[in-house]
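Feature request, filed as a ticket because there's no other form

It would be nice if the structure record came with a short human-readable summary line next to the tokens. Right now we just get the raw output. Example of a typical job, pasted below so the devs can see what we mean:
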Amino acid sequence: MAPPGPEWTSQLDLEFSAGDENAMAAAYRSFSPIVYTVALRALGDHAAAADVTQDVFVRAWRFRSSFDPEAGAVPAWVLGICRNVVLDSLSARSRQQHVVVRSGIAPGSGAAQERGVDTITDRVVLGSELELLGEPQSSILKLAFYEDLTHEQISARLDLPLGTVKSHIRRSLVHLRHRLGEWNAAS
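Raw output as currently delivered:
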């Protein structure tokens, strides 16, 4: 991770440790993408990475009194929490697989049903958010993620300039990240 940018300061470290909710929100905005990326690379599962990201920031807030601004900065502390949560998740996954193998149950049968409800909910929310984007953004993102087309393929299929496709994707993802973050916070 790059050193904290100009948006993260030692003053925010102090405010965070003092329990300032705005500092926590700033930490989430600044560091949730890197936490999510680390978790996704370690776990290889988008849902698990999202769960880890949420757990990291819940733990950071819950245990903020143990953060010492004199000993380090919030970004490093959050990544330390991330490391621990990822390791816990990998350990739990390993234990779960071991139990499944020993029980003789087909892998994923119970877990798949539990995730089914979350998956359906996520699809409904994502679908409605994609529709709210309007055209051509909605079509572009659907082609990119549901049909796994490259930017060049989307450009050719929709007869749009490549730069326009890339711009729409970038702006739409920023918008969706913000909107879905609000939805996850409310649920």
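Something like this underneath would help us a lot:
Confidence is low (pLDDT under 50) at residues 1-6.
The chain has two domains: 1-106, 108-187.
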